[in-house]
Amino acid sequence: MEPKSNFFIFIFVLIIIILFIIFSVHHSTRPKTSSNEVDDISLEDEIITLFELNAGLLGEKESPKVVTFAFGIAKFRLNETNKILRYDITFINIVDVVAISIEQPNGVLVKVLTKNVINDKVMTVLGTWTSDDEETPLTDKIITELINNKLFLNVKTKKHINGEIRGLICHDGFPL
Prior knowledge:
20% of the residues lie in helices and 36% in strands. The chain has one domain (3-169). It is built from three helices and eight strands. The strands form two sheets. Strands 1-2-3-6 form a four-stranded antiparallel beta sheet. The chain has a four-stranded antiparallel beta sheet with strand order 5-4-7-8. It is α+β, with helices and mostly antiparallel strands and 176 residues long.
């Protein structure tokens, strides 16, 4: 790799680490921005986490690649009963978001997490996906795909309707 490329990768990783720290420290103080948020989940379900999954979101992970200054991070927490998946998604330098979704590698939709997000340059979306979801229940098959790093998070905008930034959801840190 060229030294210039290494420098940009270093800067990107540094930004992701800073975002992750901010994201972790301020998680409990942010307001809910998703209609998927479930208020009646017990504190016990909130505390006991079986898996933490992450995704680093970039335009170059889209297919075809998208040239954009937008990027983001996402954190997912699956409770020990496999019935609740909480998500916390933060993205920067992206506007006119029309949907945030979980998809298979070939782009087949698994779950729309939220639609028509009103956002500025920095946005955080919090929400919950449960096994009781009427539209798309969180199933054992989906959980297995998540745990085995088989699903992507995709942020779609008016300008890039198939997705502007995307990232593999995995439990091995933030894949680059």
